[in-house]
Each structure stands twice: as structure tokens, then as C-alpha cells.
Amino acid sequence: MIPVLVLLLLHQSWADQVCMNISSYNLSIAAPHGIIDENATHAVKCINNETDCVLWCKPSNEIWFNGSSGCLNASVNDENPTFIKYTIHAYTVCYQFQCDNASILEVIHRLKEIGYAQKEMMGLISIKDSCPDVFRTSHDVKKLFVSEEKQIIHKIMDASDLEDGGFRSYNLKSLSMNVYHISSSSLNVEKATIPIEVPQLEPSNELFVPKVWIPVNALKDIPQKERVIGLVSYMHHSQFQFNQENISSMVLRIEPSGKRSMKNLVPPIKMIFRVTKPETNDSQLLCHFFNESGLNWKTDGCETHIDEDNVTCNCNHATAFAVLLIKIEMSEAHWKILSSISYIGCGLSAFFSACSIVTYVFFRSHKMDFSMSIHVSLSGALLLLNTTFLLTEWGATVELDWACEFVAALTHYSLLCCFTWMAIEALHLYLMLIKVFNTYYKHYLLKLSLAGWGIPGIIVATSLCVKSFKQVYGVTELTMSDTNKTNAICWIRDDSFFYSVNLVYFTLIFIFNSGILMAVGSRICKMKQVLNTSSKHTANTSGKLQGVPEKLRTSCQSGLTLLGITCLMGITWGLAFLGSGYVNYPVLYLFCILNSLQGFFIFVWICLLAKKQLRREMEERLSSTTGRTSDIKSE
Question: Which terminus of the chain is more exposed, N or C, with fewer CB under 10 A?
């Protein structure tokens, strides 16, 4: 590695020369456009303006040994801001790329200019090692990397040129590859499958190298000259993690030669992975394959059998495989029931939310207080949430990537709007009932609207702006615990983002609303005590039997008021805390039912307020009419 990299080094005192000095296989040189470090472990680090960079060169025939030193004539062209070109005369041309999306995509495409498959693979791996942050955050870079890596693997298989029954092994830094040419004699066995050795990365990983058996029928169907199978084992698997999957085993890729595919295999490919079992009961190990079209891990066509520390995977096709640790989801039967409840409830909630808006439009008046406007704003947020929720599964079936991303982002925005308007409901109730009465706030409703619709918009817009670093919204796979089937929806793909934003945001609102609910409940209890005290005189004079129905009516009104306020402020969403972790079906059913009826509760609340407003206006009209009549009579 050092003989090639030394040709890249530009000393600060010679702008038109490349100078190198190899001492004990440790090398650290300052260059006008960066610093290049390499040690005996062949770990190369390129830094330009305190940011990572990538070095790419065409091969050179010059050989340098330990202790060599000298300078070569060179020229530097840094007019292109995306990369710096070093031309070492009579030897080679090198490029220095910055670690950003556009530059890395370009350098990956240019690897084809090398023309030698093994060096292309080494270059591809070096790019990944040089820019770990880009590969960790960029969806486009990982997508191109996986595609190019597969093409290079097939190039290596085609270039192996094996005889019948031949075998060749490749150790390519962070991955190892075995290429087999299966002979016809090895298929003349009575067994349904034959074992094939998986490449070993290093001795310390020997226990974790899986064992593989390929079905004989699938190999017999391939012509003898094309009967080449490649097995690749990976030391690192970050390029396969698009949704922060928890990969618990070594990633194994099985590839037939050429464009031939192995699918619908009977019997299936058998793989035994050695993994460590999860310590908690809320997760399980499942066999997955990497879906290269959707860039996600799926379980279709794979069966999982767990025996102590071994996981046996039977899959009916050939691709990249691994054992993933996933959270235990609900069973398929409960999923269908809860989905039906949610869809029916969301449809009803959306209908009543729309009715709330219509009621507000027809009964709106200049004398109406702010409470009605706040209730209608919450109804609008619920209408948007329920409508987008009904589109989450449909959006996952649309071929356009932006469609599912748009549905997921809009669903997230409407959910945050609901939480925000629930907090505004609590704040308004506090100002109206607990703090003071009839206090005027300048532009009160405008300020609340900016907060209710603006804060969620800022959060979602910021999430969309980081798309080049991390894909936040998109297709999310949910796995059924009993059938291992997956259900795709449009939602947040990043678990860390989900918990850091949604859970924290809702927790703060839930604590705030719960505190106000307790304060309101305390005030209602005090008002009830006053009513009870004032009714004692009536009970003493008219009899105790007349006081009991009045107390019961007052208690029912207080209980219904608290229930309405609880639904109004979204306290029922707190059931999500009880439903987290282990799958708690009673809590999930209660959560779906109560929150699906939230739109109906708010509609009833708005109707009661509208009725109260109409009664007040009618009384004012009657009083004004009575006053005018008395004035006429006095005249």
C-alpha cells in the first residue's frame, strides 16, 4: 500500500514535486492541500482543511521499499472545488476527493477506470474506510456502494477462470470471498443438499462463520460451464444498515455466476449462524435477506429455527443473509383487529372533526370566545392526522419514493400539531379557569396559531433538510411475531430520531397537561364543595331526599367534565407509555379506541359550546327586546 500512496505526497517546500520518505513503514507527510498518514497496519488517513478526504490513483509501476526517499516532478490542479488533481509526470495521475456526497459518488463511478476487479474492490473498501461519516448518513452513497460492490463481486467470479471442481479464495481487506466451480461428480449424491465452505475473515471469527448447504437440484439446473458459486463474508456490515437494523450475525452473501438467479428453491438453502441470544424478552432473532431493490431487510421466503446459540435459516433464494435482532411485534390476528379498529375509528374521527369545523363556520359570531376557535384548530389537526394515517399503508405501495416520504412527513407534522394544540388547550384552560378571568391578551389567537402550526412545521422541515445525511422518513417494515410476515407503512425510519423527538416532545406536553388536569380537577372539587354547602339549607328545609338527586347530578356533571377535559387535552395518549416495551394488548386496544373517539368527543364539546352560545345570544335579544318595550310604555 505504501509504494502507491507515497506518490501522492507533496511537501510544502516544493509545490511542483512529490516527495516521500519511508521509515519503519510509518509515514506522515504534510501537503499543501492536506495531510496523509499511514502506518504499518495500512490504516490510511487523509485530511484536508480538517475534513476527511479520499485518495485515488491510477496504478504505477514504480516500486519503493522501506528506507526509500526522494522527489518526483509533479503538478497540481486545484481549480475544481470537488477534487484536486495531482499529475506525477511519467508515473501516474492521482485525485484527492473531499468526503461529501457528490465527490464520493463521483469517485465510486470512476473506479471502473481501473479495469482490474480486485483493485476495484480494494478501492471501494478504501473509500468506505476513508469516509465513515458519509457512509453512515448518506442513503445515496450506500445505495451506489451496494450496487457497485455486487457488480465487482461478479467481475471477480468471472475472472477466476476455474476448472471443473476448482476453487479460489480472495482476502479483500474487510471481506473474504470463496469462488467454487461445482463439478458434476460432486452432485451425484443421494443427499438433497451439499455443504459449501464459507470464507473465514480471521481466526478470532472462526466460531461465528456460518455453515452453508446448497440444494443439489438448483445446481443441476445450471449448465456445467456456468456452475460457479461465490460466497462472501463481511467483517463490517454498515453498508447494509439503511434503517439502523440490529444485525446480530455475520453477513453472508451467496451469488451464482452471471445474471443467473437462484429462487424458489426446493429444498431451500440451509445456513447455520452462531449468535448470542438476547438478554431481554422483548426482542427475538429472525433470519432476514437483504432486498436490493428496496434496500431493506425482509423475511419473505426464510424460516427461522433457534437451537441454543445457533440460528438455522432456510431460505428459498440466494442473496445476502443475516440474523437480525428485532423487537417482538404483535401477532398477525391482533394486528388485523387493531388495524380495523384504527381505520374505522380514524374514519369516524375524521368525519366528526370535519363536522366540528362545519359547526364552527355556521355558528361563528364576533361574540364567541377563543375556546371555540382553539377547539376547531385541534379538530383541524386531528382531521389532518386521521386522513394521513389512512394513507400510510397505501403510500408504501407506491413506486415513487417521494410519495411515501411525503405521506410520512405529513403524518408526522399532523401528529406534532395535535400534541401542540392539546398543550394549547391546557394553557388556555389554565388562563381561563385557574389564573384570571376576562383577561385581554393582544393578538392572543394569532400567537397561539403560530405556535400550534409553526413549531411542528419547523421540526419537520428541519428533519427533511437533513435528508442528505440521514433518511428520516420512508417505508418502515413491521414484522408479525407469529408468522414473520412484514407489513410496510410510511413512517419514521430512524428509531433514534423517533424517540429523541416524538417521545421527548410528547412527554413534556403530557406532564404539562397532566399538571393542569390535576389543577382543574381540584378547582372543580372545590366548586362542588361550595355547591354542597349551599344546598344544605335546601336539604334541611325541603328534605334530604330532594338533595340526593342534586348531588348525584352535580357529581355526574363533574365527572363528565373531567372526562371531556382529559380527552380534550390528549391525556389518553399517555397509554402509549404503558404499551411500550412488551406488547400489552389490553392497553393497545384501549389506546386505539379512546384516541379514535377523540374527534367525536371534541365535536360534542363544540356542540355544547355552540348551544350555550346560542342560548346566551337569545337571552340577550330577549332582554334587549324587553328593555325597548318598557321604554315605549314609559313614554
Answer: C
CATH architecture under which domain 332-494+584-619 falls: Up-down Bundle (1.20)
User: 3-state DSSP call for residue 148?
Assistant: helix
91 Cβ neighbours under 8 A, 6+ residues apart:
7, 60, 62, 72
- The fold adopted by the segment(s) 160-327 is Chondroitinase Ac; Chain A, domain 3 (2.60.220)
Three-state SS annotation for 466-516: HHHCCCCEEEEEEECCCCCCEEEEEEECCHHHHHHHHHHHHHHHHHHHHHH
- The DSSP element (H or E) to which 27 belongs, if any, is strand 27-31
**DSSP state letters, 319-368:** SEEEEEEEE----HHHHHHHHHHHHHHHHHHHHHHHHHHHHHHHH--TT-
Mean pLDDT lowest among 152-161, 238-247, 465-474: 465-474
8 A C-beta contact, residue 319 and residue 150: no
Domains of the chain, residue spans: 2-147, 160-327, 332-494+584-619
User: Which pLDDT value is given to residue 35?
Assistant: 46
- Bridge partners of residue 166, in order along the sequence: none
Main-chain dihedrals φ then ψ at residue 116, nearest 5 degrees: -130, 120
In whole angstroms, give the CA distance from residue 42 to residue 435. Answer: 69
Q: What is the pTM of this model?
A: 0.59
Share of the chain above pLDDT 90, in %: 15
Domains 160-327 and 332-494+584-619 share a fold: no
Question: Which residue type, as a one-letter code, is found at position 9?
Answer: L
Q: Nearest-CA neighbor of 411 among 397, 426, 438, 393?
A: 393
Report CA torsion sign: 9, 11, 12, 14. Answer: negative
